[in-house]
Design goal:
nucleotide-binding; 7-stranded mixed sheet; Phenylalanine--tRNA ligase alpha subunit; cytoplasm; binds 3,4-dihydroxyphenylalanine; aa-tRNA-synth_II; ligase activity; 2 domains
Length: 338
Amino acid sequence: MRERLEQLKAEALEHLKSVADAKQLDELRVKYQGKKGKLTEILRGMGGLSAEERPVIGQLANDVRDAIDSAIGAHNERFEREETERRLASETIDVTLPGRKMPRGAVHPLTRVIEEIEQIFIGMGYRIAEGPEVETDYHNFEALNLPKDHPARDMQDSFYITEDLLMRTQTSPVQVRTMEAMSGEVPVKVICPGKVYRRDDDDATHSFQFNQIEGLVIGKNIRMSDLKGTLLHFMQELFGSDTQIRMRPSFFPFTEPSAEVDVTYKKKGATEAGWLEVLGCGMVHPRVLEMSGYDPEKYSGFAFGIGVERIAMLKYGVDDIRHFYNNDERFLEQFARQ
Ligand code: DAH
C-alpha cells in the first residue's frame, strides 16, 4: 500500500507537468482526488490493515494528498496569473483616442438677456428683488394707483383666480412689496425680473405670458435727469456705446410724469438707425409712495418697466416672440456657448 501511495504521488506529479490549462488541471484533480479518484480507491483498502499499520499509512495518505493539492494549487495560480495577463494585454485602452463628444445645452436667450441686464444694474449698485406670480389685486393694481373702476385696468386684460387674486399682469407689484418690506427706509434701488400674464392671443409680437424687469429707485432728490442718465447708461451697456435714447411723454397711473423710451436701432442691412420703443418709465406717483409708507414731501423716486422679449428680439434679431417658447432645438442651439 505504501508503494502504491508513493507511486500515485509520483504519477500525479509527473502528469501535472503536461497539464496545459485550467480545464485539464480540473480533470486531473478529479482523477486523483475526486470521490471516485485513485487516492480514494487506494484508501478504501485500509480496512484490511493491521492496527499498527493504519495510522502510519493514514499519515502517508494525508501527506500524498497534501503534496498533490499544493502542486495543483501552484499550477492553478500560474494559470490565473497568465489569464489575467492575457486579459490585460487584450483589453488595453488607448488613451490617445479622441473622446466621445457630449452634446452641450445652451442658456435660453431670455435667461441670457435677463442675466446680462441684472449684471448691468448690479454694477450700478442695485439689488435683485422678486415677488409672487399669483398676486393680490391690491399689489397688482390698487397700491399702484389703479382703483377698481380705473379705466387703465382695461389696458391689461387679466387672468383672475378669485375676485382678489390674479396672475400678475406686470412686475410693478414688486415695487409695492419692496417698499412695504423697506418700511420707509432709503435708499431703495432694486430691479425685479419675472414672468407676467395677460389675456392676449399669441401672435408674432404677443404672448399670454412674457417677462418684464421692473426698476425702482427711491431716495432724497431723485430727479427725472437721474432716470434718464440711468437708462442711457443701461442701453449703451446693452446695445453699444453709440446707442441713443429718447423719451416720449406717456401715461401710467403709478408714475407722474410718465414716459416711453425709444432706442436707436439699426435693422440688419439698413444704412440708418431708426427708433424702437423698449420700456415705460416715470417719476413714482406721490400717491404710490404714500400708500406704501414713503412721505412724498421727503422722498422722490423713479421707476421703469422693461419688456425682456422685446430686448431679446432686438439683440438677437428674432422676428417672432413665439420662437422663445416653442422649444425648437434648431432655434435654441444657436445660443449654445461655443
Ligand atoms: N408696468 C408697465 C407695463 O406693464 C411698465 C411700466 C411703466 C413699469 C412705467 C414702470 C413704469 O415701473 O414706471 O406696461
